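To the wet lab folks,

You asked to see what we're planning to order before we commit. Fair enough. Below is the target structure as tokens, and below that is the sequence we designed to fit it. If anything looks off to you, flag it before the synthesis order goes out.
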């Protein structure tokens, strides 16, 4: 179907299961979103029908209301790691541009992080501080920011028991 330059095809929400590798990747990215921006609803996939016959549909990572920003995901990622890196980068573009804030933020340096693969595993990378001795670092694998954000409180259970008893 050919669309005129004045008629943009209507996007649609992509149902779970249509793109299994992207679904898994999006679940990991949404774990990071829930920890870092708990007021945001989970991200979703939106598809834009092709402009011309024979072209592929364009799939984007969008906010829960269907708004997105940036390039579409490429058709058929080769590996789960490729899908995770692509979805994380697309999610970062959408969150940053639609919410007008850097995301995700390194809790150590208060800087926006970027996707880097480390030993084939997509991770959130921080440039570090400008001071010598505070080098760039990997903050966490994508989907695992929650393992680093919560402060360790070894006496919490003991205090809770005391209060009850």
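Sequence we intend to order:
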């Amino acid at each position: 179907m050919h669309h005129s330059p004045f008629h943009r095809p209507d996007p649609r929400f992509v149902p779970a299961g249509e793109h299994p590798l992207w679904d898994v990747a999006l679940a990991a990215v949404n774990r990071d979103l829930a920890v870092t921006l708990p007021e945001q609803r989970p991200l979703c996939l939106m598809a834009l029908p092709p402009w011309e016959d024979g072209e592929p549909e364009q799939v984007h990572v969008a906010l829960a209301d269907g708004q997105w920003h940036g390039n579409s995901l490429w058709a058929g990622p080769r590996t789960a790691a490729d899908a995770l890196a692509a979805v994380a980068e697309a999610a970062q573009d959408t969150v940053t541009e639609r919410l007008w804030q850097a995301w995700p933020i390194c809790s150590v340096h208060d800087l926006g992080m970027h996707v880097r693969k480390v030993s084939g595993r997509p991770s959130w990378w921080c440039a570090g501080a400008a001071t010598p001795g505070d080098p760039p670092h990997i903050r966490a694998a994508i989907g695992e920011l929650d393992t680093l954000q919560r402060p360790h409180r070894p006496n919490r259970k003991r205090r809770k028991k005391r209060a009850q008893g």
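Structural context that might help your review: The two ends are 71 Å apart (CA to CA). Strands lie at 12-13, 44-48, 58-62, 114-118, 121-126, 137-141.

Thanks,
Computational group
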